[in-house]
Amino acid sequence: MPVQRLNHAVLYVRDVARSVDFYEKALGFRVVMGFPGAAFLQAEGSSNDHDLGLFEVGADAGPTTAGRGAVGLYHLAWEVDTLAELERIQVRLLELGALVGASDHSTTKALYAKDPDGLEFEVSWLVPADLITEAIAGGKASVRPLDLAKEIERFGATTPGGIGVSR
Questions:
Q1: How many CA atoms lie within 13 A of 95 on its CB side?
Q2: Residue 23 CB contacts under 8 Å (≥ 6 apart), including other chains
Q3: Residue 18: what are its φ and ψ, rounded to 5°?
Q4: 167, 108 in Cβ contact below 8 A?
């Protein structure tokens, strides 16, 4: 059987307590297990044992250089089920000073943010497959600024996204 989905991600962070606080406030994750220097968090509604592992490497750790002349992971992406939830998270990320971008990828509406260690992540809503028109599908080649209010007007705040639908 082929790979089905990403089960969890693990990050090295400077301060586990600070990162736990951030991911709890920003995305509503909760700690399901931990030990000194490590925490395992689960997203609300997730059936995974944990969705995010955090391992502390200390305050003196340098910044990631991935993407700046070194290979490495660019970002993680979490999916939400409605545009209302994407909007709620956008407000929270703004309050935390973590939002760094918002893009319309035609079939995907995405927010980009950075955690306290500068590690980038994405939160996105996928247009349901039955609402993807030829014009929407044809727009995948370009990236535009996200107008979330316009997308809520277009698709509805509570329309379930295309979770689990291959693109």
A1: 10
A2: 29, 41, 52, 54, 115
A3: -65, -45
A4: yes
User: What pLDDT is stored for residue 111 in this prediction?
Assistant: 98
**DSSP readout, 114-150?**
E-TT--EEEEEEEPPGGG--HHHHHGGG--EE--HHH
Q: How are strands ordered across the β-sheet holding 99-104?
A: 76-79, 120-126, 108-114, 99-104, 144-145
CA-to-CA distance for 38 and 36, rounded, in angstroms? Answer: 6
The alpha carbon of 47 is separated from its chain's Cα centroid by a whole number of angstroms, namely 17
Average pLDDT of the residues in 46-66: 95
Nearest to 123 by CA among 88, 97, 153: 88
Q: Which residues contact 112 (CB under 8 A, 6 or more apart)?
A: 75, 99, 100, 101, 102, 103, 120, 121, 122
Q: What is the separation, in whole angstroms, between the first and last Cα of the chain?
A: 19
pLDDT tens column, 13-39: 999 999 999 999 999 999 999 999 999
pTM confidence score: 0.92
CA distance 167 to 163: 10
Residues 113 and 48: their CA atoms lie apart, in Å, by 23
